[in-house]
Amino acid sequence: MKVTLSGQACGAEVTGVDLTQPLSDEAIANIRSAWLEHHILSFPDQAVDDDDLERFTRYFGDFGTDPFFDPIEGRQHIAAIRRDADETSPLFAENWHSDWSFQAQPPAGTCLLGITIPPVGGDTLFANQHAAFDAMPPDMRAQYEGLTAIHSAQMAYAPDGAYGEQDEGRSMAIRPDESARETQTHPLVRDHPETGRPGLFSCLGYIIGFEDMAPDKALPLLQQLYVWQSREEFIYRHKWQANMLVMWDNRSVLHCATGGYDGHDRLLHRTTIAAYQG
Ligand code: SIN
């Protein structure tokens, strides 16, 4: 197995492993340790199918619970990230986020398999939140350390949210629901559960405020934080290929989708890896 660093703020490419076949314990341990170190791993030229995607996901934990999406037909744990060539609805996941951070136990990771990849555009951006925390000036750090963030899916998946009832013509099977208004809290600055490395967890969007802080004080803090978290020096730009499997660590990075492929189909299959149980 060969791990080649992206040369950017995080991310590495892994070759010399065949994901269409069951992996040895040693290979799984090597992948896990590269994932924890580089936060995003991409595996190019893997002719994997949905069975292989599920088997690969389960090497790293249980499946996560995926609300607000219908799974693809015949599978319980695979969702399609899809956009059709003629689609005009706003791009899915264009804002920075950490997947399902509004859950009590958000998924440790996400796996995404490139199936139909447009010839231009459609890159996924990742922002390293350990680096973002490390580089914070002390006066800024003092504004955020010790805060408990309130997370909710309401702005995205409530019936009046971005993907709610007014969202028409979308090819993805998104199912908004009143349960999106529920809230959960997590420390904003927290140690990674496996590496112990401190970082910023999630961002404005799924974070809707801070405990014991008035909304008019919390919002500017969240906006300032969002700009900091997504500075150029923390970013890895991932370029997709068909038959490429990518896994990322939601505890270490934010990610967002980019457009630029109007007139082309884009389809990826996605699973989530449940929270680490130790
Ligand atoms: C996602 O946020 O799960 C999708 C990212 C992408 O489509 O690039």
What can you tell me about this protein's structure?
This protein has 278 residues and is α+β, with helices and mostly antiparallel strands. It has a single domain, classed as Clavaminate synthase-like (Double-stranded beta-helix, 4-Layer Sandwich), CATH 3.60.130. It has 6 helices and 15 strands. The strands form 4 sheets. It has a 7-stranded mixed beta sheet, with helices on one face. Strands 12-6-14 form a 3-stranded antiparallel beta sheet. It has a 3-stranded antiparallel beta sheet with strand order 8-7-11. The longest helix is centred in the C-terminal third of the chain and has 15 residues. The model has no long low-confidence stretch (mean pLDDT 98). Bound molecules: succinic acid. The site of succinic acid has 6 residues, from strand 14.
